[in-house]
Amino acid sequence: MKNGQAAREDERTCTGTEFDAVVIGAGVAGLYQLYKLRELGLRVRTFETGSAVGGTWYWNRYPGARFDSESWTYGYSFSKELLEEWTWEEHFSAQPHTERYLNYVADKFDLRRDIQFNSRVVAALWREDTRSWDIMLESGARHSTRFLVTAIGVLSASVMPTIPGIESFAGQSCHTHRWPKEGLDLAGKRVGIIGTGATAVQTIQTIADIVGHLTVFQRTPNWVFPLNNSKITKEEMQDIRSRYPDILARCRETPGCYVHGPDPRKTLEVSPEDREAFWEKLYRTPGFGQWQANFSDMLTDRTANALASDFAARKIRERVNDPILAEKLIPKNHGFGTRRIPLESGYYEVYNQQNVQLVDVNETPIERITPHGIRTSDCEREFDVIIFATGFDAITGAFDRIDIRGVNAVRLKEVWEDGPQTYLGIFVEGFPNFLMTMGPHAGLSNYTRTAEYNVEWITDVIQFATKRGLSRMEATPLAVKEWTDHVLALGQGQLMNEVGSWMTGVNRNVEGKQKPRIMRYSGGHPAYREYCNAVAAEGYPKLAY
Ligand code: NA7
Q1: How far is C-alpha 151 from the geometric centre of its chain's CA atoms?
Q2: What element of type H or E holds 382?
Q3: pLDDT tens, 276-312?
């Protein structure tokens, strides 16, 4: 006979579940999470909607899809061997190469044996009696797990526009996120594309020379800046390999975990001539230099931001031949960098081509999609193909699409109705043993750099619990309140948080997602890590067990 204390211990450590941990998603974060949890000796299963690994880099097969982070800052850093072995071909890798990389990682670490593909998780229900999660797949299959870790990405819930007649189109059409694996033959076709975000920019500049005629339907122009991509030579790759420790150290010290960090000077401290020279230099810098390495007040001071916007507008005017068209391509409702800037290679020059037309849907709104094409208030245009580059229900959208119910069957979607509330972007009160990689209010920056950190922190806290035989852990209400208040306070005064974009959780096609909210931790990733590291060092004092 066991005494009461021992029996209680038994009850707390009794696994009784099919898995110790389930990971949802086999993208960048999910693959590494599986690797780390398996390292702990746990029974782990990953469920993945797609038929193969890659997440973002599995789904987004549209023409021209590629990184906007330097390839050699985006790869995993946890394995020296992997860093040594992998050869990046371009400074900003194209989707096929990145997908190959993630497949290489899955093979190298033998990850596939614990991944169940073609398995969309549709519901997750917390069971207090067994202190475990019941997971439901679209197929109807059910599984149980002690810990549930989401690795569902921030841009994975794609959204189609709510345009009347959308189902009636008789030609081919698809969302860029659901581009067919076998590709779409666009040669010589009449193509219409809706949207002018980063995805549309990459698509437009890639297909403009292939298609017969391209019509771009623009609602909001973005500040689009040069990517300045190039191939990586064998010698360059050798040099990059030798510098990985420095590159990774640099990424650890910048707010966005890029190699680019802000210039400490304030915009108006610098003479107009020096400012112009500095911005010209940034314009020629590969990647996010213009956005991340600009003057330190560029995204907080309105005057500074207006000057940066003036420079960017001049660049558009220089590149687009037709001055009326150039004005249409210059954003008027948001300042430079207040939305994540799409990076381009020849985007503006596309509008100088005879076979490309821009339709400003503010002047001539889209009325409906017809069997033959798109009807705006002034005319109907006929298309063979319509491309929807209409973006995502970002950050919380992928969570909303799973019926996640915590204690007392409370729905996560309802808890977050007025905006996310989390502890460190990782825990949610009332959702025990539920942990999010790259959740809302976490440090969202150069994805792999920040996901790796998140995954390692989550692994450590799961190890902490399992070592102590704790079958239940949850953020306290105080922890959630303090973190949420902290994130909201940090987000005040950031111009990015005032503007509607996926980064502020806005999607005009999704009910309840019309107004900007603070969705990200904006104190910079070094500060985020410092905070999370301190929590771990103190033994997770604000978790309840
Ligand atoms: P985005 O940046 O959210 O862009 C979506 C685009 O689609 C944007 O231009 C929208 O205009 C446009 N949109 C959506 N619905 C409509 C309708 N009904 N009519 C006209 N235009 C519409 O998503 P992306 O996929 O381009 O990029 C997401 C991130 O992926 C990017 O930042 C990179 O980090 C990678 P709006 O601006 O809402 O007026």
Answers
A1: 11
A2: strand 380-382
A3: 999 999 999 999 999 999 999 999 999 999 999 999 9
pLDDT for 222 equals 98
The residue among 331, 366, 388 that closes a domain is 388
> Same structural domain for residues 201 and 242?
yes
Q: Kindly state whether residue 182 falls inside one of the protein's structural domains.
A: no
Q: How far apart are CA 528 and CA 207, in angstroms?
A: 40
Mutate to test the pocket of ligand 1, among 173, 502, 515, 519 (most ligand atoms within 8 A of CB): 502
**Same domain (yes/no): 454, 322:** no
Q: For ligand 1, say whether the CB of 198 is within 6 Å of any of its atoms.
A: yes
Amino acid found at 147: F
pLDDT of 161 higher than 60: yes
Say if ligand 1 is within 6 A of residue 523 CB. no
379 and 400 together in one domain: no
Q: Is the same domain home to 413 and 364?
A: no
Mark whether 277 and 323 lie in a shared domain.
yes
Report the atom number in ligand 1 closest to the C-alpha of 503: 32
pLDDT at 251 over 80: yes
- For ligand 1, say whether the CB of 161 is within 6 Å of any of its atoms: yes
- Check whether residue 381 and residue 402 sit in a common domain: no
Q: What pTM was estimated for this model as a whole? A: 0.96
Pairing of strands 19-24, 44-47: parallel
Task: Please give the Cα distance from 522 to 541 (Å, whole number).
Answer: 24
Kindly give the distance from the C-alpha atom of residue 68 to the centroid of ligand 1, in angstroms, as a whole number.
Answer: 16
Task: Verify that 382 and 424 share a domain, yes or no.
Answer: no
Ligand 1 atom nearest the C-alpha of 389 is: 7
3-state secondary structure 395-416: CCHHHHCCEEECHHHCEHHHHC
424 and 506 share one domain:
yes
Model confidence at 15, in pLDDT bands (50, 70, 90)? low
What pLDDT, on the 0 to 100 scale, is given for residue 16?
Answer: 79
**Last residue of one domain, picked from the residues 388, 421, 447:** 388
